[in-house]
Design brief:
The chain is of the alpha/beta class. It has 10 helices and 9 strands. It has one domain (about 5-230): TIM Barrel, CATH 3.20.20. The chain has helices at about 20-30, 45-65, 75-85, 100-105, 130-140, 145-150, 155-175, 195-200, 205-210, 215-230; strands at about 5-10, 35-40, 65-75, 90-95, 115, 140-145, 180, 235, 240. The radius of gyration is 17 Å and the shape is globular.
Length: about 240
C-alpha cells in the first residue's frame, strides 16, 4: 500500500477504559505507520485536561508522532458540558447508539465524530438520510469502529455488519464523511492501516474511499478542530475579527 498520512482517531488509554499508557500507544501506532492518533477519554474534571495535554505533548515530541486529545460524550448532559469547553481539547466524539442522541450529535456543530450509531439499535441501523444530511451540513463524521465489529459473535456480528453496511450506503449517497477507527483498548489492539482499509472494502467502500477514511477525512477533522481552538473562534459561525 502506498504510504499515506494515516490517523486513528479513536483509541482509549489507561486514563479511561483502556489498558495501555499513551507512550505504549504512541510507539505501537508509529510502528504501524500512523502519522497520528487521538486518545479518546471520558470527561471527569477540567483539571484532568491540563495533565493529559502535558503528557501528550511530551510523548508526541519524544516519539515524533502527532497525538490528539479527544473526549467522548455519552449523553446530552455530557455533550453540553463538553461544548462549553470546546476550545480546550482537540476532538469531540458523541457515543452513538440511541437514535435520539444520534440525531442530537449530528445537529451539533461542535461534534467531530458520531461513534457507532448502530450499536444499540435493534430494529434498524440507528441512522437515516435526515441524519446524513445533517452530518454533511455540520461536518460530523460517522465512525466505523473495528472493535465494535470484532467483539460481536456469530449472528450478532452478521447483524452489526449489515447495519454498518446500511449506514455506509447512506453516507455514500448523501456524501457525509466516514472514518474508520480501531477503537482500541490496548496498544496491542491497534490495527494496521491495511487491515482497516481492507475492512472498509468489505463494507462496500472502494479502495480509494476506504483509504480516505483513515487519511483525508481525519485530516479534515483535525484542521477543523484547530479552527475551533483558535482565539478568534467563539462558537460555530461566530469569530472575532481584529487586525
Amino acid at each position: 500500500m502506498k504510504y499515506m498520512n494515516y490517523f486513528d482517531l479513536h483509541i482509549n488509554s489507561e486514563f479511561s477504559e483502556g489498558e495501555s499508557s499513551i507512550e505504549q500507544i504512541a510507539k505501537r501506532a508509529k510502528l504501524l505507520g500512523y502519522k497520528g492518533f487521538c486518545i479518546v477519554e471520558n470527561y471527569k474534571m477540567k483539571n484532568n485536561i491540563e495533565k493529559l495535554k502535558k503528557e501528550i505533548s511530551e510523548i508526541s515530541k519524544k516519539e515524533k508522532i502527532e497525538i490528539l486529545l479527544g473526549f467522548e460524550a455519552t449523553n446530552e448532559k455530557e455533550l453540553n458540558k463538553l461544548r462549553e469547553i470546546r476550545k480546550e481539547y482537540d476532538i469531540l466524539v458523541a457515543k452513538g447508539g440511541n437514535p435520539n442522541f444520534n440525531r442530537k450529535a449530528v445537529e451539533t456543530k461542535e461534534v467531530d465524530i458520531l461513534s457507532h450509531p448502530e450499536k444499540d439499535s435493534k430494529k434498524d441501523s440507528g441512522f437515516n438520510h435526515i441524519m446524513a444530511k445533517l452530518a454533511r451540513k455540520n461536518n460530523v463524521a460517522i465512525e466505523i469502529n473495528f472493535r465494535e465489529i470484532m467483539q460481536c459473535y456469530k449472528k450478532s456480528r452478521v447483524s452489526v455488519l449489515h447495519k454498518i453496511q446500511s449506514n455506509v450506503k447512506i453516507c455514500k449517497k448523501y456524501k457525509c464523511p466516514l472514518i474508520l477507527t480501531s477503537g482500541a483498548l490496548s496498544h496491542l489492539h491497534i490495527k494496521d492501516p491495511i487491515v482497516l482499509t481492507s475492512m472498509g472494502t468489505m463494507l462496500e467502500l472502494n479502495l480509494n474511499d476506504s483509504k480516505k477514511t483513515l487519511s483525508d477525512i481525519p485530516k479534515q477533522i483535525i484542521e477543523s478542530s484547530k479552527k475551533k481552538q483558535n482565539k478568534k473562534w467563539i462558537m460555530p459561525g461566530v469569530e472575532l475579527e481584529w487586525n
